[in-house]
């Protein structure tokens, strides 16, 4: 679906994308994450043929998004993070406008989505709140009959109820074998929706894989009360930040190296043990923080 | 009122460059007249002769103002610069008021500031004070530079104070306009329309119906008779009118909600018409109100000028000399007058054409284009729709201006043939107008950030038309204005060559702009 290799894009002196790679496969919901200014929106704009790449290779449905923009756009729908509506068009008109320009929209789904998102289509652009402007773009995108959804922080401004409607819609969309690229800062949303994620920082990809794979790359934290004082824990591979206080021990261990640690603890006799799986938050914080 | 001071401080800081440029520009406008007049005429006799011919020229009177003491430097300065200076003060006031009130409200930035402990009226009061101060600066610069040049101090002061007060009046009308409308664009349209009507009323009034000039703030300004028996009392009218418009702006403000206009929002259609979903359909829908507004405005302008009929000949009086050296060296007063009015109408239409050509840029600026171009709509189709509206709208606006001119002239004089004779020439300026908007399109394609510079083309054309002679501008500079090349119909015979060449130039500029746009990043 999407193949990006060594993509470079600069704005004057700023290098927004610096050799970025990104692959999105058919039928998956792909999370696209990174700190503010990492280059997510820039990547999406290049992918939509709105910006011209400086170097690298970008393929969308196997074609060049700059050259074949209009043809490719009929097969996708895009929701920007900041939706600006025309002050003198109603929400309903905008939905129809975008849908028809994309090559037609599904009338039943349009009506259904308007209802589910509780959106009044007769209001003029300036009469909508931020969340409602977002909904106009979402309804327009979701009621189009397309293969790929490109969403750039689509839920910024949605209330929790509407966010859950949005998640259901994305689930339904995926269940029909279609593909989603979702840039988001809401970790719960990413965790709930995404099959695979790519994390970028400063214009390059730092991590990519399924959530399970990524979890694997981080550390589990373990606290235990032991029957006797443990020893030799520090020397085990992948163990960090060991704190021993009498018979109490706290440590962090790379998720791939759990087994030897548990054996060592068992040797000392385990009275109680709590283990914290890595949260997504830790994962992201580790990747987001400049190393 | 709490917080007014803080707001005013911020506004003044943000506006200091605007102040400076407008101030310098307007002061130069006044002083350059004095300077060029003094350089142009070697002897008083020569000056008297030229003045006599100008006095009898209805076209010049309509463009500049009542002809008084034109054989003196001060009289010339007043005549040439006052109306134009008042327009500048009006535009400056409009932009200052607009950008600190409606534009801020529209963008939502205002809310950030309003949420701070400030009074409801604080931003509006600060914007008002800001514009008032800017106009004081304008007046001081004009009065100061004229006095420094060596003209009579009292009359220089009169021109300065009058300019300030006229600017204040237009500040008031701009403040009303931003209350009545819900978008900055519409507010500028309304406030700009008020300035245009003020100018038009006094143009017609000065030529044949003096009472109309008394309905115009620009007319009040010129009624002080600077350098020809200065009197101050007309400015009292301006002052009273200013207080009245500001008070009504405040009254309207108190009756409306934040972020809205006076009229409550009405629900619109839940579904789009089928033809909206195309580059052309969308562009037409977006630009329709603007096209309609300009079309009506220019129709009225044409009707107004045409209503002067043959009366323009009366101005000339008996001086056989003035008949001989009338504008463009012909004795046909009426044709000379209408030839100039036709160029004026075409220049006004250029205002529409340029703003329409810049519309795609503001759409892009406001972030409304990205979602559109992420659909099957191509860049060429999107921009092409706007281009079509600009070109067709330009032709429409010109046609209506011509129709108004010809029809009302025919009604007044009973000369039915005049309908065609006067309306077709207006249309013949379409290529020149489209060259200016083609320039705007080229800038939008190549350097969108500085696309507003396209207005300089219109400014140049205006300056060349209004002051080309009086300032003694060099030939090459005058030739830069596309309007200089076309035949002055009905005074001269229509010529195909410049018409076709300008058409090609306009098309080339437009195509180059569209080509550049297709190849650049979207902003
Ligand atoms: N038109 C532009 N001109 C100049 N710099 C730009 C432009 N667009 C983006 N940038 C720069 O490129 C970098 C990447 O921006 P981008 O908008 O892609 O970030 P992002 O990952 O979407 O961030 P966020 O999470 O805040 O949306 C930033 O440093 C930004 O300042
Ligand atoms: Mg972004």
Q: What do you see in this structure?
A:
The complex is a heterodimer of chains A (291) and B (523). With 291 residues, chain A is α/β, with parallel strands linked by helices. Chain A folds into two domains: 2-214, 3-Layer(aba) Sandwich (Rossmann fold); 219-289, 2-Layer Sandwich (Alpha-Beta Plaits). Helix content of chain A is 33%, strand content 30%. Chain A has ten helices and 13 strands. Chain A has helices at residues 40-47, 69-73, 91-101, 107-116, 130-142, 160-175, 187-193, 211-216, 258-268, 280-288; strands at residues 2-11, 14-24, 29-33, 55-60, 76-79, 148-152, 179-183, 196-201, 204-210, 219-226, 239-245, 248-254, 270-276. Chain A has a six-stranded mixed beta sheet, with helices on both faces. Chain A has a four-stranded antiparallel beta sheet with strand order 11-12-10-13. Chain A has a three-stranded antiparallel beta sheet with strand order 2-1-4, with helices on one face. In chain A, a hairpin with a 2-residue loop joins β1 and β2 (14-24). In chain A, α3 runs parallel beside α5. The longest helix of chain A has 16 residues, at 160-175. The mean pLDDT of chain A is 89. Chain B is mostly helical and 523 residues long. Chain B has two domains: 4-255, no CATH class; 278-519. In chain B, 73% of the residues lie in helices and 0% in strands. Chain B is built from 22 helices and no strands. Chain B has helices at 4-40, 44-55, 58-63, 73-100, 102-107, 109-114, 122-149, 153-180, 184-207, 210-213, 217-222, 234-255, 279-306, 320-324, 333-365, 370-373, 379-413, 418-427, 430-446, 455-467, 475-479, 496-519. Mean pLDDT of chain B is 89; it is low at 316-328. Chains A and B meet through α2, β5 and α3 of A and α13 and α16 of B. The complex binds adenosine-5'-triphosphate and magnesium ion. Residues 40-41, 81, 152 of chain A line the site of magnesium ion (MG). Magnesium ion (MG) binds at residues 40-41, 81, 152 of chain A.
